[in-house]
Amino acid sequence: MCDNANKNIYLPYLTTVMEVIDETPDVRTLRLEFQDDNISETFAFRAGQFAEYSAFGAGESTFCIASSPTRAGYIECSFRSVGRVTEELRRLEVGDTMGVRGPYGNSYPIESFYGKNMVFVAGGIALPPLRTLIWNCLDLRDKFGDITIVYGARTEADLVYKRELNEWQERSDVRLVKTVDPGGNSPAWDGKVGFVPTILEEAAPVAENTIALVCGPPIMIKFTLPVLEKLGFGDDQVYTTLENRMKCGLGKCGRCNVGNIYVCKDGPVFTAKQIKAMPMEF
Amino acid sequence: MRKYISRQNLNTLIDKLIAEGRRIVAPRMTAGTPLYEPLGHSGEMIIDQLPRRSAKEAFFPLCEEIMSYEKSGQQVKLTDVDPSRFPETILFAVRPCDAAAIPVLDAVFSWDYKDEFFLERRRKTTVVGLACTTADDACFCTAVGLSPSDTKGSDLFLSPLEGGGYNVESFTEKGEALINSCSDLFAEESNAAYIQLANPQTEAFDLKKVKSWLDEHFEDQLWDGIATRCVGCGACAFVCPACHCFDIVDEGTEKAGKRRKNWDACGFWKFTHHASGHNPRDLQPKRYRNRIMHKFKYYDDKFGQTLCTGCGRCVRICPVGIDIAAIVEEINQK
């Protein structure tokens, strides 16, 4: 787990930006390759884990690893430019150097999902922490039952991974239900119009032998959990990832705690059952 | 090992160690403020005043470089900080409330990922504790299970004697090594009476009871009542021997600079502020609750220890008079 004896745990690995993809006007995805071949070969992560990304001179920012562990040789992160570090990360171009520390935190217990149906429910910029698992499942397609993805954003422009949404839509072994909030659609929109919890209820995935994974803004989660309950999902069938401001990612700097739970060490992946037992501090 | 050392020989010991190139840190006046700082000679050491900040900064500096970066074109060169460069240090005249916090901090810096910045300094530092002979209204070490003669965290411990000098007791190999390095300055343990120790006027809290109340009262009126006057200045965390929250920041230009680990405080609004604008601890009572919870519940949940040694610094320095001992006493009475 921590083979870092006598090493500087705050020292990032250097990566090269290989690809820059604009997802929305303010959300960008970077594909990164490790500059040290040894790290490139040994860097192993699981879906759900996160990393600390450095823009040298600005600092570090925390995001999930958005690519799938089944895709070796690179990692991807997706972020919205909203602060000093993310503005600086946004200025990086192909070939530029970026720092990465990680992988940190727990992960989805994907092995325990084998043989089950999967329902992914995401809103807006919260698709990346599910996208890692979606591709992980799709790359091991035989191990899972039905796969349903319910994804919504305020407007069409706010949907991330548009190329992949098209790919999922065309696959016969995935059911994609995409939606935008009322008023967020163009005349050409071929998806649903409505808020994610409502659309999820309409889509009505069966709860039996199914795992639901929910990521989105707090308001979406708040209204989605009762819908899942209504559909028959138990709290231990529902997973989400929490985000709190972090600095170290290592269980030391003291800010990401929700009660006595450290999101960086005990999370970021939690079941709805665990979330409901936590104090409201996220 | 038990020995005696006269005050004069203690000074000789310190000066001899300094002459040998050892780094000696002890309470001394620094710009009018008593602080644990490196000594130039033994005469600078003051033992009658509690330093303004705790001894934790000997292991966990207020601000420290953790790496540096240098850009050239699209490439970045990182330079690591080699912890082996940290000097061997002897901390003298450390108050029991400060020494006791050091092993408490070991837990967080050594669990799972190892913070070598803390741990390497820890390995290279000998802690010489000094029994406390004066207490003020803010002292409450006795309330959290410690005492003015508590030797927790000390490699060597000095107990002042009537008529001058100290009985010296060593608890670790580091402590014995220090005695053995200058054994001619030490004599056999003295039978002289000990100077009367400080007597903080605080009754022991029932820390288990306090914790079990906290276990059940994340939401409680108490938090609103005590923290509305908190101005969020963070001074309590900065003077605390056990607070260890930190920030990681880059300081420099776009071309080159350093990454630093700086003290931070859970009382600051920005501490938990998300980039989205959301803040899980958006109000001061929520932040103050975290301070109490971390010290008397969360750290206990995680490491089985209380994150407070009763030094009273936060009580003395608070600009609006918030008294953590009174708050915990109130919880203790519930």
Report on this model:
The complex is a heterodimer of chains A (282) and B (334). Chain A has helices at residues 37-42, 84-90, 128-138, 162-170, 196-203, 218-230, 263-266, 272-276, and strands at residues 13-22, 27-34, 50-55, 59-64, 75-80, 97-104, 117-123, 147-153, 175-180, 192-193, 210-215, 238-241, 257-258, 261-262, 269-271. Chain A has 282 residues and is of the alpha/beta class. Chain A folds into 2 domains: 13-104, Elongation Factor Tu (Ef-tu), domain 3 (Beta Barrel); 110-241, Rossmann fold (3-Layer(aba) Sandwich), CATH 3.40.50. In chain A, a hairpin with a 4-residue loop joins strand 1 (13-22) and strand 2. In chain A, helix 5 runs parallel beside helix 6. The mean pLDDT of chain A is 95. Chain B has one domain (2-333). Chain B is globular, with a radius of gyration of 21 Å. In chain B, a hairpin with a 5-residue loop joins strand 8 (156-160) and strand 9 (166-170). Chains A and B meet through strand 4 and strand 13 of A and strand 4, strand 5, strand 11, strand 12 and helix 9 of B.
Overall, the morphology of chain A is: globular
- The gyration radius over C-alpha positions of chain A equals 18 Å
The helix content of chain A, as a percent range, equals: 10-25%
Largest interface, chains and sizes: A-B, 51 and 55 residues
CATH architecture of the largest domain in chain A: 3-Layer(aba) Sandwich
Instruction: Please give the alpha-carbon distance between the first and last residues of chain A.
Output: 27 Å
**How many individual helices of chain A?**
8
Quaternary structure classification: heterodimer
User: Between the first and last Cα atoms of chain B, what is the distance in angstroms?
Assistant: 44 Å
The tally of domains of chain A stands at 2
The class by helix and strand makeup of chain A works out as: alpha/beta
Mean pLDDT metric of chain A: 95
CATH class bucket of the largest domain in chain A: Alpha Beta
What is the percentage of strand-forming residues of chain B?
A: 15-25%
